[in-house]
Amino acid sequence: MSFSDWLAIGAVLISLSALVLSFIRWRDSKPNIRVRCMFLMASRAKVSNGRSIFGVIAMNRGQASTTLLEARVQRRRKVGEILLGKKPKQILFNNYITEADHRIEGGSAKRYQFQHSDETTEWLNEGRLTVGLLCSHSSKVYSTKIRPALANKRTPPS
């Protein structure tokens, strides 16, 4: 192989690495939402009307900011309900979020607190509770499923 062949191979390798690097930077420049639920807080804290509360953490790992449009808690469907096309039961918590809390900057996290209703406590005891957030940058609902073992261990006190 001549020198020009090695030079061409080097140029191809540099251009491929630049392409991969630009793809990684493009992917990281968008908002990247992660949702976590805090049940230790739910088992200890009480509000004035006696209902337990649970916390939801929305983390934006991307560089761009996003806006929270909707917070929801829903009951996961069984396989038979999915096959029959039944819609999941859900409760929206938009009235608990203030205007200042809507914007989630890049590289930051926000914490929201919601009260348990009778329905959410029942879904939690069944192990079928899902917490989700809808943001402005995507039509995808970012959610976390609460596993039955976790839900049974951390059931809020009645």
Written account of the structure:
The chain has five helices and eight strands, in the order αβαββαβββαββα. With 158 residues, the chain is an alpha+beta fold. The chain has two domains: 30 residues; 123 residues, Immunoglobulin-like (Sandwich). Strands 3, 4, 5, 7 and 8 form a five-stranded antiparallel sheet that branches. Strands 1-2-6 form a three-stranded antiparallel sheet. Strand 7 and strand 8 form a beta hairpin.
Key terms for this structure?
Immunoglobulin-like; three-stranded antiparallel sheet; alpha+beta; 158 residues
- CATH first level of the largest domain: Mainly Beta
Mean pLDDT: 76
How far the N terminus sits from the C terminus, by CA atoms, comes to 78 Å
Number of DSSP-assigned strands: 8
Summarize the biggest pleated sheet. 5 strands, antiparallel
Radius of gyration: 22 Å
The dominant shape is: elongated
SSE topology string:
HEHEEHEEEHEEH
CATH architecture descriptor of the largest domain: Sandwich
How many structural domains can be distinguished in the coordinates? 2
Do you know the CATH topology of the largest domain? Immunoglobulin-like
Helix content: 25-40%
Q: Tell me the fraction of residues in β-strands, as a range.
A: 25-35%
Low-confidence stretches: 40-44
Separate helix tally: 5
Structural class by sheet pairing and helices: alpha+beta
